[in-house]
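Good morning C.,

I know you're traveling, so I'll keep this short. The sequence:
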Amino acid sequence: MDNGNRLFIGNLSFGATEDMVRDHFSGIGSVTDVYVPMKKGFGFVTFSTAEEAQKAIAELDGSEIDGRPIHLDVARPKAPRE
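The tokens, ready to paste straight into the viewer:
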């Protein structure tokens, strides 16, 4: 269940890896999960608390991973398929 601790990462480089993302966010707090689909330009990072996720948005929105500035937002639940 999402408690505001999962972030959507937009504008992610196609060459970015889960390890790169984990390293980038690990200084903010406890990263519990990272998901980066190959060559999609986005990903997700999950922290152990919503407070850590908010701190990541405040401190890392606009920072660069693999040469591209990233955009961070709290992840929304996946919409149900019809």
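Safe travels,
E.
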